[in-house]
Amino acid sequence: TEAHAAIPEPHVYADILHAVDCIEQGTPPLVSGEHGAHVVEIIEKGYLAARTGHTQVLESRF
After folding, report:
1. Which value, to the nearest 10 degrees, does the dihedral of the CA atoms of residues 6, 11, 16, 20 take?
2. What would the pLDDT profile of 1-59 be if each residue is shown by its tens digit?
3. Is there a contact between 48 and 26 (Cβ–Cβ < 8 Å)?
4. Of 7, 16, 25, 56, which one is least surrounded by beta carbons within 10 A?
C-alpha cells in the first residue's frame, strides 16, 4: 500500500512480510534469529563505540 511504501525504512516492511510468509507456508526464514541478534549487537556496539570513543567487544558469534 502507499502507507507501507512511505515507511522511512522499507526493508522493515519487507522483513515483516517475509516473516508472515514463513509462518503461513511453514518455511524457515532467510536469516536465523541468532544471526539477527548478532547484527543488532554489532549495530548497538557501534553506537556505543561512537558515543564513548572506546572499542567494544562483541559477545555474540555467528
Report:
1. 110
2. 677 667 788 788 888 899 999 999 999 999 999 999 999 999 999 999 999 999 999 99
3. no
4. 25
* Residue in the block written with cell 553506537: 47
Cell 526464514 maps to which residue? 29
Instruction: Show the cell assigned to 32.
Output: 536465523
Q: Which of 57, 31, 29, 32 is nearest to 44 (CA)?
A: 57
Please state the domain extents for the chain: 1-30, 32-62
Locate 48 and state its grid cell. 556505543
Backbone angles phi, psi at 50, to 5 degrees: -65, -40
Q: In whole angstroms, what is the distance from residue 22 CA to residue 34 CA?
A: 17
